[in-house]
Every structure is written in C-alpha cells, then in structure tokens.
Amino acid sequence: MCPNTQKPGSESELVEMFKALFKPEFPPSDLLLGIGDDAAVFEPGVDPETKFVITTDMLVEDVHFRREFHSFYDIGWRTAVANISDIAAMGAHPRYGVASLASPHDMTTEDIMEFARGLNDAMVAFESYVIGGDLTRSTDKMSTSLTIIGETTGRILTRTGAQLGDVVAVTGSLGVSGAGLAVLQADNPLIGEELREVVVNKHLRPVPRVWAGQVCAGTEGIHCMMDISDGLGIDIGRLCRASRTGVRIFEEQIPIADETRKIAEILNRDSLEFVNSGEDFELMVVGDPQAVEGLMHFLSNHPYTLPLTIVGEILDEPLGMHLARIDGSVVNPSELGWDHFRTREQGNG
Amino acid sequence: MCPNTQKPGSESELVEMFKALFKPEFPPSDLLLGIGDDAAVFEPGVDPETKFVITTDMLVEDVHFRREFHSFYDIGWRTAVANISDIAAMGAHPRYGVASLASPHDMTTEDIMEFARGLNDAMVAFESYVIGGDLTRSTDKMSTSLTIIGETTGRILTRTGAQLGDVVAVTGSLGVSGAGLAVLQADNPLIGEELREVVVNKHLRPVPRVWAGQVCAGTEGIHCMMDISDGLGIDIGRLCRASRTGVRIFEEQIPIADETRKIAEILNRDSLEFVNSGEDFELMVVGDPQAVEGLMHFLSNHPYTLPLTIVGEILDEPLGMHLARIDGSVVNPSELGWDHFRTREQGNG
C-alpha cells in the first residue's frame, strides 16, 4: 500500500532462506520447479496406474497448539505430521507439500525459520519435500496450513467398505498424546521426569504410520483404513457412517500404554478421555479377521515391531455403535472425541 | 477433549453440506474420490507430457480482507482467484483445489456456506473443483487457505528468461482494485454511484486471466510471465531479479482506467499508488517485441477483447530498475508495492 525500502528480513529474503532450507538433498527427477515462482511444477511422466492423493490441514494457535507448550519447531513438525498421516491413511506415499504461515508481528525471522525447520525435518523424514508456499503476516494469532500431494500405484484404502464380520484394529497405542497434553496443561509433582518425558515427547513429536499404511493397503482382505486424528470414538463413528455399518468396541482391548494409565491415575482422569482426545496419528484398520491377524503378525515381527491390536468388530448398521466399557456400561463411541464445531473450549484438535 | 452430543451444525453436518455444494455438475473422469475421506484422490492416467502446477495462498482477516468491506461470498471468491491467478500465470489450467477455513465463533453456518459459495463459484467459473479441505475454529480472526493443482501439456512460463531487447506488457488495466479499496476505506460524496460501482466491483470480484495465460504460454517468443498480485512495481522487481535483468518502465504507458484516474483525483491520491497496491490479478508478460505485438493483436481481436499494453523494456542487469515518472523523476519500481514483512499497517495484499 505504500512505498517500501528493501531491508533485511523482507519477504523476498525470507523466500531465499526457505529455498536454501527446503532444497532436497537429492532432488526428485520429476520436480521441475520448486519455491520462488508463481507455482511449483512437477512432471511425473506417469505410470497410467498412478493415483494422486491430496490433503490439507490448517492449524490455528490456541486451537491446535499453544505457544506456551509448543515450540515453533514443534508447530512445524505437527503441521507436517497432521497431513502426512492423512496420506498414510490412504495407503499412499507423501511426495510434495506447499505450506503457508500467517505469522504475528512478535515472530522473529529466527522463529519463522525454526517453524520451517520443524516442518522440513518431518517432511524429509518421509521422503517428501516442501516445494512452495505462502508467507503472510497475521494481526493476531499464528496459523499454518499445509497441503500434501502423495502418490501410489497400488490400492487406495478409504473409510468405505467395512463389512459384517470384519474386525477393527489400531496400530501402536492410543491416548499417549492426550496424556502428554494433559501433563503440559496440569503438571503434577507426582509425575516423575521420565514418565513426563515419554508422554510429552509423543505429544510434541508425533510420528505418522506411513510404512504401515502402505503395508495395509497392499494386504488383501483389508477393507478400510483411516488415521485416528480426532480420537478413536469419533473417528470410528465416521468410518461406520461412511461404510453404513455399526460397530462394537471393547474398552479392555484398547491398547493403552502403562505410562498413559499412570498419568490418568495421578491426574485423576479417565484414560479413555485421552484415547478420545486425538492426535495419536495411529491408523485404524478394518478387515476380515484372517487378514488382520496376518497383518498383526507381519507388522509386529518386522524390525519396526509395530503392534496392531484388535479392538472391536463391525456390526450391521441397525445394531448401532457401541463401546463396551470395563465397568459394564455401554456408550456411543461416536459421541466421544473432538469436533471443532461442538466443543467451544480451547484444546487440541 | 470432552464428550459431544450430535446436534445440527456439527463438523460432520457441515462436511455433508460442502459435499453437496462442491459436487461437480459433470464429475471429471479422473476424479476418484472427493470430499469426505482422509484425502481426495485423482488418477490422471496421464499423458507423459503432463506437468502439474501447484500453488497455495493463505488469506488472513484484516491483512487480506476486512469483514466490514468484504462479504463472506467475496472472501471465498478472492481466496479462489488469488490461487487461480497463479496457475494462470504459469500458462496452466486449474483442476482441483483443497480449501481450509478457520472460522471465528461469530461465524454462523450460513456465513460458512456463503464463503463456500463464493469459493465454489469462482472455481467452477474456471472449470475447477474443490475436492477436499479442512474446517476448524479460530479463537479470533478468520483465515482461509486454498491450494490448487493445475495441469498443462504445454510450455510452462516462469519468471526466469527475460532477455535484453524484450518488452514488458500487462493485460487489462492496473490500479482498479486499489482504487476500489480506497473508495471502500474512504468514501467520498464526490464519487458518484456509477463510478464507485465500477472500481469497488473490480476490487471485490477480481477475475483471473486463465485463458490469456494459456495463449501467452503457447506463443513463441514470449519468455516469461507472472501475475501482478502485489503491485506492478514490486512484481516486476521480482521478475527482473529472477531473470537477472534490469528494466525500464514508463509511467505514461501504464494502462490506467479513466475511473481509476478520477478516483485518484477526487481522493487526492497518486494513481500510481493504486497501480502498486496489487490485487488486480492481471498478467505481466515479457517477450520479444514481435511476439508481444502479435499477442496484442490476437488478444484484443478475440471476442474477449482483452487489451495487452507494452509498459517498458528489459535492460541489462547492471543498468538496474527504473520507473520513469510522468513528472520526469525516476524511481526504483521494486521499492513500490506490497511486502507483508515490510509494511506494518493493515491493508490489502
């Protein structure tokens, strides 16, 4: 709106710093043009079987992260993982990302670069690259946005396709991220340093299940998959609605780490709350029992030793959705979890 | 974070409304999966020559738009156009978009849908479709983000490649959007209703030059192209730095509409300020004089009658960047315009 003089820290100089940071060590052969023009360009010269998978997520300060808990690096990491996890949940491999940052005036150039480093490290860890973006000021809160395009020549696993007789399984353990957030929000001297570190680390640096997602998509008899980003309850509800089925989940079968249970006990919380607070970025997999058992064996015996645990079974749609609690009560799992448009308080999402 | 009951207006219900709104009238044959899963999927089954072009933009309340001036529909339209214009500036055609919205608590479901309608109308106008997105709450300001993937089997025109002897031309007329914003910010009884409407409409509903971009990319002798989103001055500076050239622009040659000049006169502003306030979303095209003249003839004689005007010439890099003003003075054009990280006041961008 008014004449500017060129000084250090201008948008163009930041773009130059991003170019250097995001430059792939070994540039993919199909990348024709990266950061710095009106748009980025790639020419996949594709196998006609190639499917492109595209997803986007926006993270907003005080909704998805809080600067008192999350460093700028953590925010960058989390922005990447939220998206990579969605690509993983389709059975695809992340390729390229375009990122946006709205930065408040109190963010310095170093803060912006720290955000970019967290973003880049998570992308590169999964062989994917930031090839473009948009940088703008915000008059108030910080927000970030990332779009990732992934690809696969194999099968895509959606939320649709669950069948009567299928079982529901989840990777890893659930609730660790929620326990970590709870510890950040309400620290307690009874929580030892070691215990604190386990759950807080998992909250701050979640890891998406990219490899497992591809294995699941390649396994016959697996019918659907999604990532658990908003909590087991609400997310199984979404899967069942998409597949037009019911479900029965058994609380006692849900894999909850000892650390999560200990935190719940100390903070006088129900560990199921943590399971439903989301952001574990584990995968939920539905398929026929033999296929799921084969997967369990394969995933847990691979050098990565990723547990896969059956937590329930698919029912006919008219039978509804049930979560059988350990105390004998039954609740509707789809009513547990995170819905931005229902819950008014700030927290994670 | 806490149990929710399903009520109207939940995230899932909004997603259903989006699905219905964004559904293409004639679904593209390569679109396998749209809104509602972890990610959207398309299988272009591609011509090995196909290049994908990807761009993203984030718009933030009180930086890129103000709710007192821009309706939710306008904000959606603007979000789409900012991105489509970048795709146009590469010579590509927009195909698919994924959009995000962070909505403050005072935005109603109807406000959200009005934003979505503006977004959808602009996308559909250029035969492109929203196939996914993310919806979240904001604790404060509204922000939007869109990523568009476009494609072309033809040539890509970047900002690099301007050569000594080339001329610089721009489509349409510059400064109308800036004049429109000025009228919105400081209305003046001397500005008649008709005059007001011309410039305000152009500001609120900009139109990207998709067709012209493709024509330019297909014209031999055209060497580079970019869209003018931050103002002629700063944007020609970016092009010259990318191409390692200098430039001389002649103010008297810049196409400025009579309406823009009248507004400048009434508001006692310099019309060059409007030219440099950006958001006209016109294209800047650089090429050898014969090629540009051929383009001028073609574009202005087509039923669309889009003017293309030569505004300057490319110089050797050591000669620097010059804007020859009508009053005889010379300024550096790259120091005029909008840089989010230099200008602290709120305005457009």
What is the straight-line distance between the termini of chain A? 37 Å
Kindly report the average pLDDT value of chain A.
Answer: 91
Provide the structure class of chain A.
alpha+beta
Main sheet record of chain A: 7 strands, mixed
Using CB atoms under 8 Å apart, which protein chain pair has the greatest interface?
Answer: A-B, 98 and 99 residues
Secondary-structure element order of chain A, N to C: HEEEHEHEEEHHHEHEHHEHEEE
The percent range for helix content of chain A is 25-40%
Summarize the structure.
2 copies of one chain form a homodimer. Chain A has 10 helices and 13 strands. Chain A is α+β, with helices and mostly antiparallel strands.
Give structural notes.
- The structure is a homodimer of 349-residue chains.
- Chain A has 349 residues and is of the alpha+beta class.
- The first copy, chain A, has ten helices and 13 strands.
- Chain A has helices at 11-22, 72-88, 109-125, 176-185, 193-204, 210-217, 232-243, 258-266, 271-275, 289-301, and strands at residues 31-33, 40-42, 51-60, 93-103, 129-137, 143-152, 167-171, 222-228, 245-250, 282-287, 308-316, 321-324, 330-331.
- A seven-stranded mixed sheet of chain A has the order 8-10-7-11-9-12-13, with helices on both faces.
- In chain A, β12 (321-324) and β13 (330-331) form a beta hairpin.
- In chain A, α1 runs parallel beside α3 (109-125), α2 packs parallel to α6 (210-217) and α4 packs across α5.
- The longest helix of chain A has 17 residues, at 72-88.
- Chain A starts with 10 loop residues before the first helix and ends in an 18-residue tail after the last strand.
- The interface between A and B is large, with 98 and 99 residues.
- β2 (40-42) of chain A pairs antiparallel with β3 (51-60) of chain B.
